[in-house]
Amino acid sequence: MSRRTTRSGRSATPAARTPAVTAQSPCPCGLPAPYAECCGRLHAGMLAAPTCESLMRSRYAAFVVRDEAYLLRSWHPGTRPPAVDFDPGTRWVRLEVLETTDGTAFHTTGTVTFRAHFTDRGQPGTLHEKSRFVRHEGAWVYADGEFVD
Description:
- This protein has 149 residues and is of the alpha+beta class.
- It has helices at residues 39-43, 52-65, 68-73; strands spanning 90-102, 109-120, 123-136, 139-147.
- It is globular, with a radius of gyration of 15 Å.
């Protein structure tokens, strides 16, 4: 998932109220596990993503919890920005994984097409992207993505 930048011409508003994600909260990635047992382990560095889909889900969850360090760590150094620009008016609400191509232990590349649902200053929206992942130094990393709509 690429970074989302603030749209020009809009004034900044206070951060969208996002319920705190705790260790026992349902994982924001949508899988049926508590955050601590799902993406929280990847964010904490206890586990590497075994597939590009699991990396995609953990990156979405990192946007939800605003974990800049994890997002930058899981971004390919050739395309990684210097920082992540979290839009304070955006609240990520749901992830739909639509298609995954390759990206398993037997591959070196993979793609994940997804829809990330959000509210932006109270207005609903979606980000529809086909993300490309590659292995870098043995680990899955986000390389880049193209917007589908």
